[in-house]
Amino acid sequence: MQHVQELAATYIARPLLCAHAGRLERLAARRTWCLVGGEPAAAVLTDYLRPGVLTLYGEKVPGLLAARQKFLKEPAPGHTAVVEVRKRFWNFPGDPQHNNLVPPLLVYADLLATGDARCIETARMIYDAYVARSLTEG
After folding, report:
1. CA distance readout (Å), 33 to 38, 49, 89, 96, 115
2. Phi, psi of 58 (to 5 degrees)
3. Who's near 112: CB < 8 A, 6+ residues apart?
4. Domain for residue 51, yes or no?
5. What is the domain extent for residue 44?
6. Given this model, what pLDDT does residue 27 score?
7. On the CB side of 130, how many CA atoms lie within 13 Å of its CA?
8. Which of 10, 21, 47, 100 would staple 43 via disulfide (CB 3.0–4.6 Å)?
9. CA distances to 23, 34, 118 from 88, in Å
10. pLDDT band for position 3 (50/70/90)?
11. Is residue 116 part of a domain?
12. Residue bearing the bigger pLDDT, 51 or 122
């Protein structure tokens, strides 16, 4: 049995990369290799959370993004933000208004899994705005 959210790789990047969730969503729109999840996806959905960890879901590490943003395997000066690359595992639709983000249910789960109070607060917002609505519609 495959683990849910199988971690493919973890990198360290410049903090500025994680802070610009909308830019990440637009970048993912031009590429087909990944979807944005976790804190950056929550920032796009709520316009509330400032991401500290970048979570990408895809089949492989996005090489061009990794090169441009200088993803590193070990911490270095100026590289303090964590980038998690996870394998895509779901087969249910996301929010049609945000094709480049993982489904809101997964964003909600990613945030709860952090155990961080600011992420849990944002998870409640996502639950109220997206998850609860999808449960009553389906």
Report:
1. 17, 25, 14, 18, 28
2. -175, -175
3. 119, 120, 123
4. yes
5. 7-137
6. 58
7. 24
8. 21
9. 21, 8, 25
10. very low
11. yes
12. 122
The DSSP bridge partners found for residue 7 are: 86
Residue 1 resides in a domain: no
Query: CB-side exposure of 129: number of CA atoms within 13 Å?
Result: 17
**Of 39, 26, 34, the residue nearest 119 (C-alpha):** 39
Domain count, the chain: 1
For the stretch 108-128, pLDDT in tens is 999 999 999 999 999 999 999
DSSP conformational letter for 32: S
pLDDT number for residue 123 = 98
Mean pLDDT, residues 13-32 taken together: 58
Sort 13 into a burial class: Cβ within 10 Å, 0-12 / 13-18 / 19+: buried
Q: What is the pTM of this model?
A: 0.80
What b/e sequence results for 54-77 when a residue is b if at least 16 CB atoms lie within 10 Å of its CB, and e otherwise?
Answer: bbbbbeebbeebbeebebeeeeee
Q: Which helix (H) or strand (E) holds 93?
A: none
Return the residue matching tokens 């952090």: 114
Question: Is 2 contained in some domain?
Answer: no
pLDDT at 11: 79
Judged on CB neighbours under 10 Å (0-12, 13-18, 19+), 86 is: buried
